[in-house]
Write a sequence for this structure.
C-alpha cells in the first residue's frame, strides 16, 4: 500500500515501501516544497535512502532515521530552523 497523507500536528506521512526509485525521492521533494514551518514528514521505506540524506543536509533539513526489526526504516524530516 502506498500512502501519502497528512496526519495530525502538521505531519505528512509518505509510505513508499512499494514504490521504485526515484518515486520516493520525488514524493519527498514535493512534500518539502509545501511543508509549513514546524511541519514534519514521516517517510517509511524498506531501506535507508542515503542519496536523500545528502540532499536534505545540503538544503538545510534535519532528519532522524529509525530502523525496525522487520526491515522497514522510518525517517522523520524536519526544517533545521536556520
Amino acid at each position: 500500500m502506498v500512502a501519502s497523507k497528512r496526519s495530525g500536528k502538521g505531519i505528512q506521512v509518505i509510505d513508499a515501501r512499494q514504490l521504485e526509485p526515484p518515486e520516493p525521492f520525488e514524493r519527498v521533494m514535493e512534500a518539502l516544497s509545501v511543508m509549513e514551518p514546524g511541519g514534519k514528514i514521516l517517510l517509511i521505506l524498506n531501506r535507508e535512502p542515503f542519496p536523500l540524506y545528502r540532499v536534505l543536509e545540503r538544503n538545510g533539513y534535519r532528519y532522524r532515521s529509525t530502523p525496525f526489526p522487520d526491515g522497514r526504516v522510518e525517517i522523520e524530516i524536519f526544517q533545521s530552523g536556520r
Q: What stands out?
A: Helices lie at 23-34, 50-58. The beta strands are 3-6, 11-15, 40-45, 61-67, 73-79. The CA atoms of residues 8 and 76 lie 14 Å apart. The first helix runs from residue 23 to 34.
